[in-house]
Amino acid sequence: MSSMEKSYNLHDQTLRFVDREDEMDFLYEEFASPRAEMSCGHAVTPMSLTNWCRRLLEEGKSKFVCGQPNCNKEWPYVEVRKMALLTPEEREYFESTMAQNAAREYFNSKTCPGCKFSVTRKDESNLSVRCQICTERKGKPYEFCWQCLKEWKGPQPRSDRCDNDGCYNEPLKALKTCPEIVFESIKDVRGCPSIRACPTCGSLLEHTSKKCKNLVCPRCRVEFCFVCLKLTFQCLRTSRHYIPCSDGVAPRQTSIPVWHQNT
Fold first, then answer.
1. pLDDT digits (tens, 9 = 90+) for 51-99
2. In 3D, which of 193, 263, 199 has the Cα closest to residue 235?
């Protein structure tokens, strides 16, 4: 991300300027730039658009889609590059990461440590993956760990780690060891981790705004409360945006939710 805040030039006649809130500013950072309209009709600033698209890349996406609920409009990279005022360094990062993510998206496989052939994982909630080639060759089931890429040891199915030395789940480690966040606008909230797994899809999100306890997950686009881990509409039944949750602070997560997109 650029160290200096980017801003639109009001004399740029190729942009359509609008007088409304920045609709991609999910962390409420309140950027000073004038607002311009994307092809989907939503208002952005170059900083909020850069942050949103960077988040999509960090979540493994290779395409850019509007983050507003009920808007599935895909933005061409040419539009993102122009509207986000991407610097040369940002363009290099965006383009290389897009290519890497596209490769992973369409070829979601890893090399089996036994036969060295590529194997695709079907169950994302289970780290133990069976290699059919090794199973046939050995005449018995052969599983390896998707995480440490060694022959599986220990009970299964498991989503955190196998029993091989050095096998550990980096996301769970982050949830366990991340520092706490202190909300500037919400009194009496203590002990809230600064990293949470989205309760809907399991994506790891770091909350840095310190202003509002709710945010929108860039992967599944569901808004939830970072403090109590309820969906925002559920939290607001007994609380408000800037007051402590009625159920208090949810404890640190010890498992990562799996996204069942078709349920």
1. 999 999 988 888 999 989 888 899 999 999 999 999 999 999 999 888 7
2. 199
Q: How many C-beta neighbours within 10 Å does residue 40 have?
A: 16
Q: Are 180 and 193 in contact (CB under 8 A)?
A: yes
Q: What is the CA radius of gyration of the chain?
A: 21
Spatial contact of 72 and 66, defined as CB atoms under 8 Å apart? yes
Q: Could you tell me the domains of the chain? A: 17-106 (3.30.40), 108-168 (no CATH), 169-263 (no CATH)
Query: Would the pTM count as exceeding 0.85?
Result: no
Do the beta carbons of residue 193 and residue 175 sit within 8 Å? yes
Nearest CA to 218 out of 91, 97, 63 is that of 63
DSSP track, 34-79? PEEE-TTS-EE-HHHHHHHHHHHHHTT-SSEE--STT--PEEPHHH
Contacts of 11 (CB under 8 A, 6+ apart): none
CB half-sphere exposure, 128, CA atoms < 13 A = 13
Instruction: Return the closest-CA partner of residue 82 out of 21, 6, 195, 152.
Output: 6
Q: Is 54 exposed, middle or buried (0-12, 13-18, 19+ CB in 10 A)?
A: middle
Does residue 235 sit in helix, strand or coil?
Answer: helix
Quote the CA–CA distance of 164 and 174 in Å, as a whole number: 20
Sequential DSSP letters for 100-162: HHHHHHH--EEE-TTT--EEE-S-TT-SEEE-HHHHHHHTS--EEETTT-SB--SSSS-SS--
Question: Two tokens at 48?
Answer: 């909020």
